[in-house]
């Protein structure tokens, strides 16, 4: 399912899906003022939440895990890379095993592709 929605509150919503490694993966983007929230998954669950923001004092964005398993660096790492790429604050929830390197690469490449074709959604 694709398409932006405007909630009337300055938050716009964009959804897209892709079949990756034979499973449907859904992406839900909420564009916020100065950043965005990105949810990635196969089922409607929120088991982790990471946030990253660029810093004047360091070239690498600051990142922390707000919710979820702290031994899983996947959500924090991905939110950090997206913050660096977009120069925006990124909230990210990923309900996929990003420890699988193939899946993580496919997910990140699909996000980059969507950012290139729909920069206004981020």
UniProtKB/TrEMBL annotation:
Pfam families: PAC4. GO terms for biological process: proteasome assembly. It comes from the Eukaryota. It comes from Denticeps clupeoides (denticle herring). This is Proteasome assembly chaperone 4.
